[in-house]
Structure formats: structure tokens, C-alpha cells
Amino acid sequence: LNVSVIKEEPGTTGKPVPAQVEAKIMALTGQSSALAMREIKDGDAVYYIGEFPVHNEQKIDFAIEVTPQGLDETIMMRMDQQFFTD
Description:
By secondary structure, the protein is mostly beta strands. The protein has strands spanning 2-4, 6-7, 15-16, 19-27, 32-35, 38-42, 45-49, 59-68, 75-82.
């Protein structure tokens, strides 16, 4: 899982912002587990990576909470992805 937090800036593609990022993965069986996220800085870019195993055709739901640095507001989102392996 790769999460980037971008602050909108008019006339640009945005500015990367450090954040507190928490993520959970949920399998179709209903099992939920926290996903350890690590911060990566590369020049001006800041992003957060979480690794987890997958099986062919497995669908995983993600619950992600992001609190950008300097803000008290937490942004919550959910998404799902089906994975295919060789």
C-alpha cells in the first residue's frame, strides 16, 4: 500500500505533506489487522508504505486514516483492491 498526502496549491500539482498515516486491511473472512506504515522521504517527496502478503484473486478492503501535519482533522477513506499473482 502506497499513500501520499498532497496539499493543493494553485498552479501546481500540489505539495507533499508529512502526515500520521494508519491503515487496516480486512479480508473477506472479516479478519482485520493493522498495517505497519513506514515513512519514505525522497527529495521533496514524502510517502508511506505498508506491505502485506496476498494470494491470487484475493480481494482486500483497506481502511486508511490520515492526519496531515499541522492539522487536527483526520481524513478517513476506504477502498478495496483485488490482486492477481503469477
